[in-house]
Every structure is written in C-alpha cells, then in structure tokens.
C-alpha cells in the first residue's frame, strides 16, 4: 500500500517526498519570496534619495548570514536579503535602518510557535514531555523551545496577573456578574489546596470579561468581601444581578458591598443539590420537573412546575423540596431581566466550563507547584478562554438593564405595566 504521507514525483515515482517535507519546502519558498518583495518595495520607496555624488542612499546589499527559523511546518534555513540604508535623520542625526516586518532581527521562531509552549503546558502537557513532543512537531532542529522555558513563562504570567489585578474598571459598566470558586491542588507549602475565587462580568456591549482571579479561604465571606471591595475600589459599578451557587460566603459579602444587587442562584448547582436528596430511581422524573422550572416561559409557570414536584415528592422527601423553597426568590430572579439573557443568567457556565481546563492542568501535573504558580496558571487559562466566551444574546438590551428599565417575565414594560415589546403587539 502506498504511504499516504508521501507524494510521487517524476516518472516511475522514483522521487518521493513527504507531506512534511513539502510543507517545509513550500514555507521556505513563500518566506523567501515575501522577504524579497518586502526589500524591493522598501528600496523602491527611496529610489529618488541620493547623496552629493548622485548615488542612491538605499540599495540592496546581498544576503544576510543563514539562520535557523522554527515555524509551524518545522525548522527552516533562511538567508534574508539585506539593505544598505545610508539615510540620516536630520533632527537627531541617527542612521536609518531597514527592519523587516516579516522576519525581525534575531528572530528564531515565529510568534505562533512561541505560543505552543504555554498552550501545551496549560492544557495538560507535562514539562518532561516537551522534548519528544516538539521534535515530533517541529523536527530535530527546533531551537529555543524547551521545558526550561516554562519557568520563565510562569514568571511572565505572574507579572501579567499582577497587572491584571491593578487595572482600572471604571471604563465600562457591568450589568451582570458570574461568581464561583474552585479548589486547585498545590504541591508545595503547608496548604495542599488553593481556593480560586473567580468573577466574570457582562459589559454594556454584551461581552463577557474576566474581572477577578483571586485566592480565598474556603469561599468565606471575608475572602469574597475582599474581592468585591477591590472591584468596587477600582471603579466597578454596582451590578444589577449576580449569578452564583449557594455558597453563603459570597452572598453575605455581596450584600455588604453591593446591597442593591439582585441574586440569582445557579440552576445547575441547585439541580444537583435537589437530586442528591432523592433516590436514584426517582431522579430522572425529578430532573425533568427541575428543567421545566428553569426553562418555564414565566415565573408563574415555574411555580406550577414546583408545585407538581411538591405533589410528587414532598411527602416522602421533604428535604428535596425545601432546597427549592429556601432559594425560590433567588432561583427565579432572572425573570425580571430580558428573556434574551436568560440562558446566560441561569447558570455559572462561563466559569464552570473554563475551570474544567484548570482542573485538567492541575490533575496532570499533580498540583500547580505553589499558590502563586496556581494563581498565575488559572489566570492565564481563563484569560485565554475569554476568546471563546459568547457575547450575550440580545446584547443591545444590556444598556436598558443598566439604565433601570423594568422587565416582567423577560418583556420590557412601561410604567403602567402595559407591554410595549413589538413581539407581544404582533
């Protein structure tokens, strides 16, 4: 059977080249052509500038020494064209120099390859596996990519996290917050675990933004209060609604720092808590009723689903129903906000899904090494995850929420409680 990784060349298929070789050869030719075109354009732009003897000040000057450049298709040997630029800046007297935008001076790898290390590490590749993995990906000549780079990267991430914690928040208004905590294993130090406290906000343009990644003590009230106060002191407005699980510390802290903010309990967490109070044989039926509550079109319909669950389970399993009664007002707070936003507001999914990557990373490494390393790692993962966070549906309505417009069962209403939404009028 013909090797699918190779392509035949010439008569009788005597010459064979692998797809990887072909990719490297193509990349080499394209880079060389691009560098030549870049230099030609630069030289041509100064063709009229000449010295006292009439000689051109900017001319080509052969080729630079060969250097190894690692790109996504492997490591290439490149000789970039050189430029002799004799122009002098009149004001400063400094000599002008040509600088390639394609291949900067001293570059040994492309920016995308530079990103390989943190991506591989953050998503679960242990440092001891870097050597074999990079050789397989980029060839034996891959330079400047080693597991020792992780230590330097971790220091960079810690510096980035420190800057993140100091930035001003007064440049946006935030309508909603999602808050949650997770325990991360730490290898070093007296404490074996670190409790990460994470806050994500929804801005006036509907985009989700990472606002805080802090360490706390078992999601205590004091730890959460410190997080909320820090956000407030850096200029964040009082949000309209906060979604989180049933951790008492977060809610007590929220009431002390942002007393006017409404609370929304996460339906995913609540569903799990209710099901835990029921035998397994009854859980499928209860789960169906819980989904009917969470996805009901109106608050009244959600109450009807609650009463159906009460009729079926309250006599024998009162604890399951009491878990809903205790937080019913907070479970149904989302009905006072635009219906387009409900799917976002009912759960802390943006944090939960992002934390899955953090847990994977710490599981592979048997811990993050130290609290500072764990915080930096979590911040970097969550910061990268922002690119995948969906913009809030009905983002144009976030401004209405911030301006205090009233919504009833997801529909905008006027002062006399009549519906003005065009969908209802139709």
Helical fraction equals 40-55%
Instruction: Tell me what portion of residues adopts beta-strand conformation.
Output: 15-25%
What order do the SSEs take from the amino end to the carboxyl end, as H and E? EEHEEEEHHHHEEEHEHEHHHHHHHHHEEH
Tally of discrete structural domains: 2
Report the uncertain regions.
1-7, 9-13, 364-368, 418-426
Strand order of the largest sheet: 9-8-7-10-11
| Tally of DSSP helical segments | 17
* Anisotropy-based shape: elongated
N- and C-termini, Cα separation: 65 Å
Mean pLDDT: 79
Largest sheet: 5 strands, mixed
In short:
The protein is an alpha+beta fold and 426 residues long.
Describe what this molecule looks like in 3D.
This protein has 2 domains: 17-110, no CATH class; 160-408, no CATH class. Helix content is 43%, strand content 17%. It is elongated, with a radius of gyration of 30 Å. The chain has helices at residues 19-45, 111-114, 116-122, 130-138, 149-166, 221-233, 248-257, 267-276, 283-294, 299-313, 318-326, 328-331, 342-345, 349-364, 371-385, 398-402, 422-425; strands at 6-9, 15-18, 58-63, 67-71, 74-78, 81-85, 174-185, 193-203, 208-216, 241-244, 262-265, 407-408, 411-412. A hairpin with a 5-residue loop joins strand 1 (6-9) and strand 2 (15-18). The protein is of the alpha+beta class.
Keywords summarizing the entry:
426 residues; alpha+beta; 2 domains; five-stranded mixed beta sheet; two-stranded antiparallel sheet; 17 helices; 13 strands; 43% helix; disordered C terminus
């Amino acid at each position: 059977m013909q090797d699918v990784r190779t392509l035949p060349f010439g008569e009788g298929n005597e010459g064979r080249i692998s797809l990887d070789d072909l990719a490297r050869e193509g990349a080499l030719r394209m880079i060389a052509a691009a560098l030549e075109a870049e230099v030609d354009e630069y030289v041509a732009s100064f063709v009229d500038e000449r010295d006292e003897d009439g000689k051109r000040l900017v001319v080509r000057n052969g080729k630079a020494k060969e250097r190894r450049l690692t790109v996504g298709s492997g490591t290439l040997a490149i000789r970039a064209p050189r430029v002799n630029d004799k122009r002098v800046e009149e004001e400063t007297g400094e000599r002008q120099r040509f600088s390639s935008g394609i291949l900067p001076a001293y570059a040994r790898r492309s920016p995308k390859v530079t990103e390989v290390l943190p991506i591989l590490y953050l998503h679960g590749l242990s440092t001891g596996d870097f050597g074999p993995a990079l050789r397989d990906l980029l060839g034996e000549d891959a330079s400047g990519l080693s597991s020792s780079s992780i230590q330097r990267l971790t220091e960079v991430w810690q510096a980035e996290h420190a800057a993140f914690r100091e930035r001003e928040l007064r440049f946006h208004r935030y309508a909603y917050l999602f808050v949650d905590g997770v325990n991360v294993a730490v290898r070093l130090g007296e404490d074996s675990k670190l409790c990460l406290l994470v806050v994500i906000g929804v801005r006036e343009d509907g985009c989700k933004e990472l606002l805080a990644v802090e360490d706390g003590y078992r999601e205590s009230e004091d730890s959460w209060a410190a997080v909320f106060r820090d956000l407030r002191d850096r200029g964040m407005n009082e949000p309209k609604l906060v979604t989180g699980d049933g951790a008492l510390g977060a809610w007590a802290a929220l009431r002390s720092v942002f007393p006017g903010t409404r609370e929304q309990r996460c339906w995913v967490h609540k569903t799990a808590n209710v099901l835990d109070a029921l035998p397994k044989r009854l859980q499928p039926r209860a789960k169906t009723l819980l989904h009917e509550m969470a996805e009901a079109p109106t608050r009244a319909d959600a109450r009807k689903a609650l009463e159906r669950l009460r009729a079926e389970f309250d006599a024998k399993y009162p604890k399951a129903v009491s878990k809903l009664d205790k937080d019913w007002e907070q479970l149904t707070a989302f009905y006072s906000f635009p219906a387009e936003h409900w799917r976002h507001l009912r759960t802390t999914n943006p944090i939960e899904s992002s934390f899955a990557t953090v847990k994977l990373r710490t599981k592979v490494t048997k811990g993050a090494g130290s609290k500072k390393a764990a915080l930096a790692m979590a911040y970097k993962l969550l910061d990268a995850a922002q690119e995948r966070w969906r913009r809030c549906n009905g983002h144009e309505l976030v401004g209405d929420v911030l301006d205090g417009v009233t919504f009833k069962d997801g529909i905008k209403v006027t002062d006399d409680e009549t519906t003005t939404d065009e969908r209802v009028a139709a």
